[in-house]
Every structure is written in C-alpha cells, then in structure tokens.
Amino acid sequence: MTSRLRIAVQKSGRLADRSLELISGAGLRVMKGANELLYRIENQPIDLLRVRDDDIPTFVADGVAELGIVGYNVLAEHFPEDDLEERIVMRLGFGKCTLKIAVPDTATYEGPQSLEGKRIATSYPNILGKWLKDKGVTATIVEMRGAVEVAPRMKIAHAICDLVSTGATLEANGMKAVDLVLASEAVLIKAPHAPPADLEHVYDMLLRRFDGVTASTGAKYVMLNAPREHLDEIIELIPGADSPTIMPLAHREDTVAVHAVCQENVFWDTLDKLKAAGASAILVLPIEKMMK
Ligand code: ATP
Ligand code: MG
User: Fold this and answer.
1) Ligand 1: distance of its center to the CA of 163 in Å?
2) Is residue 223 exposed (0-12), middle (13-18) or buried (19+ Cβ within 10 Å)?
3) ipTM of this complex > 0.95?
C-alpha cells in the first residue's frame, strides 16, 4: 500500500463546508465514499479524516493526521499559549468569531473586576481561566458543554464566556457582550513530525496551494488610468496594494496605467475616491488563482 497524507477536517458544523471549499479550491477532487470517516482524494495521495472539531488538535498532535483545519479557539483551549504558533501553518480567513464575556442586559459591567467572586459559565475553561488570571480576577468557572447562554437565566452563573458572531443568540437570551476574550478564525495546523519522505512533495504542494487560495479569497485585480501628477495619491487609495505596476499609455504623456493586486475587496466608496482623485477607466476584476 502506498502511503497517503491525512488532513483532519470537521465532519459537519460551521467549518465543514468552508474546509471542503478550501480543499477543492486547491484542486483536490473529493470522493465522497461509503466510508463516512475517511473521504479519499481522487487525484492526489491524500485522505480527509472527518471528525468532531474537538478531536482535531489531538489527532494532529499525535500524528494521526499530518494536517488539520480547526478553529483557533479550539486549538487554544487544548494547548498552552506559548505552544500555539508553532502548530499553526497558516490562518485561513474563514470561521471568524469572537469569544466574549456576556452578562444579562440588566447587569452592570465596569471591566473584568466586575467578575470578581462571580460564577462564569463556559465551554472554554482553559482560555477563560488564563484571561481571568491575566486580569487579576478570581472567579468560579462553571464548565458547560453547550447551551451556555441559558446559564444566567437558570441561575447557574452570573455571566458567560461564549462564542459570538452576530450577537443574535445573546440578544434572544436577554444578554449583552461586554468584553473580548479571544478573536478566532480557522487555522491550518500541522503534526510535530515531518511528513513521510515520499509524500513531502505532496505536502509542500498542498501548503503552497492553500496559501494561494487563502490569499486570493476576496483579492481583486485593479486597473486604472491615472494622471501622473496625482499618481502617489491614487496609489495610496488602492487598498492593500504594495507595489503596483505603472505603464505608459500610447500618445498620453500626462497619464499612466496602474495595475495592482489588492489583498482585500474594493468597495464602491473606494472607486468614488479614486475617481475624485483623477483616476479614470477603473476596472476591478476577481482573481481566481494566485501563487506568491
Ligand atoms: P463538532 O460537532 O465538530 O464538535 P461544534 O458544535 O463543536 O462541532 P460548530 O458550532 O460547528 O462546533 O463550530 C465550529 C467552529 O466554528 C467553532 O469552534 C468556531 O471556531 C467557528 N465559529 C464561527 N462562527 C461561530 C459562531 N457564531 N458560533 C460558534 N462557532 C463559530
Ligand atoms: Mg466541537
């Protein structure tokens, strides 16, 4: 049997679809087979290990999978802070959310000291414990697996520390977010050992392509004409473009063409500002693939 690389991904849940999109964006053809735990990649010696997100950090740390896609929050709950960066290969730009302290609408909160001596319900006891320690606050952590947001109403806790993206769940439960504990997004993590020698080229190719997909998500190619006298001002306005290409235009001494890759989306108000600064013939194109 030839060996195959394994990538641990969430089987179902908030990261599952985006993880598969990243994988297919990197040119891997996923075969959804009879085996629910393991999906085969048709065109590369790679398998996807489909598990609960809580299991991903341990599977990758133990080398059951060479790579894994998991929320930074889950990783940070599993391992001490000074140990996290070396496990992370890259940040993936999706699955963004924040771990926040929330209290009932009626409660007053004047900073972390307001939590002194209180009970706080959370599914993230390690992250919360460290945050409280950093703030010099002593509180009781009540560990809950789910439905953390009902804890105050049930008089189990005075406050909660939970993941928030829009705040709708908090609102529905009569609570407000009052402090930020951790900002999170999906990250690609790696096993401590090097990949098997015969798969090293596949491993390197994967990382290059994941990097390319992540970098091109939301990135745009901008082309415009700019009067020479306003060139610096116009380049300044193009978001996230470090070194644009400047080209002469035929029969137009006073105007140049500017081409730039923008690392972020370009909104209408940016176009308005470019226009006001003297830019014309502005084109914004999507970028399909990118390799740095
Ligand atoms: P599993 O069954 O795999 O254990 P889960 O219920 O623990 O799944 P999900 O709710 O699917 O987890 O969330 C997975 C990850 O998605 C979170 O750990 C977090 O990194 C990210 N995420 C993004 N937005 C949110 C959000 N609004 N609420 C919770 N998690 C979010
Ligand atoms: Mg989970």
Assistant:
1) 8
2) middle
3) yes
Q: What is the pTM of this model?
A: 0.88
Strands 119-122 and 159-164 come out as parallel
- Among 125, 121, 184, 126, smallest CA distance to 147 is for 121
Q: pLDDT for 17-58, tens place per residue?
A: 999 999 999 999 999 878 899 999 999 999 999 999 999 999
Ligand 1 atom, smallest distance to 14 CA: 11
CA nearest ligand 1 atom 24, residue: 97
Helices (H), 43-84: 56-61, 72-78
Q: What angle do CA 208, 84, 127 make, to 5 degrees?
A: 135
State how far the alpha carbon of 268 is from the alpha carbons of 241, 271, 273, in Å: 17, 5, 9
Angle CA 38–42–211, to nearest 5: 85
Nearest CA to ligand 1 atom 18: 71
